[in-house]
């Protein structure tokens, strides 16, 4: 059973998180600077970690609509699928960076150390949200 890779798409940096093989827990792993470095990292991770799919954060507007950033990420997902051969699933990333900042502050991480970790923690939050939905028990109906 393969793992899932969570990806937080930024303008300059990309946060990467990985799930466990059971697809229950997401762990922050890397921040990659620039798209060229991203492709190199994704190719090596796909081989080394048995990645079966990518969960990409979709930056929807607060009202749930797609704005320019979401359209950019959707276009990027097409390139991602083409270059890696991996299926891409989207997960709403609204407030993931805000949650990541708060989590790092609560952990006592400040300054440049926090800035360098926000993207991978955001990727973890995105991936964990997806995993939580994936593992949700369907409601029991009273038939």
UniProtKB/TrEMBL annotation:
It comes from marine metagenome. This is YqgF/RNase H-like domain-containing protein. SMART domains: YqgFc. PANTHER family: POLYNUCLEOTIDYL TRANSFERASE, RIBONUCLEASE H-LIKE SUPERFAMILY PROTEIN. GO terms for cellular component: cytosol. GO terms for biological process: rRNA 5'-end processing. Keywords: Cytoplasm, Hydrolase, Nuclease, Ribosome biogenesis. Pfam families: RuvX (PF03652). The lineage of its organism: unclassified sequences, metagenomes, ecological metagenomes. CDD domains: YqgF (cd16964). Residues 2-100 form the YqgF/RNase H-like domain. GO terms for molecular function: hydrolase activity; nuclease activity. InterPro entries: RNaseH-like_sf, YqgF, YqgF/RNaseH-like_dom, YqgF/RNaseH-like_dom_sf.
